[in-house]
Amino acid sequence: MQAIATNLKGRRGDSVLFDNVGFTLARGEALIVTGPNGAGKSTLLRILAGLLRADSGSFSLCDDAGADMAVAEHAHYLGHRNAMKRELRVSENLDFWKSFQRGDSSTGLSVDAAIEAVGLTGVAHLPFGYLSAGQQRRIALARLLVVWRPVWILDEPTAALDKQSAGLFADLVREHLSGGGIAIAATHQPLGLDPVKTLELSGDHRAAFDAVEAWS
Ligand SMILES: Nc1ncnc2c1ncn2[C@@H]1O[C@H](COP(=O)(O)OP(=O)(O)OP(=O)(O)O)[C@@H](O)[C@H]1O
């Protein structure tokens, strides 16, 4: 499987935020997107996830035989918001996502196992809104685990996480990569992944970018 972005150009209103963005990721590879506030990181990720239209260029996934794979069915997108109902129990939220996102061939952890994987055993029965901001983010990350999808598109995944939880998150991403997945994350903080490809959006609205090999 590969994730391939070619000559992507992103715009908000009259402003071109980035142009000529391109990268190729194979199984087991991660791309970290960096840049100052307003550079267009979230815009880029939303384009990759199919939630916004690119001005030009393309993003596609293909399997090992080169056949197209639909991004909407094979990628998880985690935005700034956690996409959970505050009034529903943690288990009800994750049950919803598990059934909503399940494809015919999808597999993933059980809801209880996913909660355990993010270190929050015992909170399944609580309303999501009762959890602290960091605990809520960890449950949002557990959503990625209840249905296996090969590509993770993550916007500031470690926002609100303490150091230990950020480390736990890095472990989950490493496990995902070693299982043949791909991860693309926008972040202001090092995620502790080695090695990764990096893509820096300069925020000057005119630069061209290349993904380069780097050690974080
Ligand atoms: N819905 C929108 N309509 C118009 N402009 C928008 C919209 N959303 C974002 N923008 C603008 O697009 C630019 C890029 O925003 P974006 O959220 O992609 O940046 P970012 O690099 O993710 O920033 P941050 O690091 O602060 O999260 C900003 O100038 C922002 O004001």
From TrEMBL:
One Pfam family hit: ABC_tran
Keyword Membrane in annotation: yes
Claim: Transcription regulation is one of the keywords in the record: no
A GO term for molecular function: ATP binding
Entry keywords, A to Z: ATP-binding, Cytochrome c-type biogenesis, Membrane, Nucleotide-binding, Translocase, Transport
Domain ABC transporter: start-end pairs: 3-214
NCBIfam families per record: ccmA
Family indicated by similarity: Belongs to the ABC transporter superfamily.
Protein name: Heme ABC exporter ATP-binding protein CcmA
Species whose genome carries this gene: Hoeflea algicola
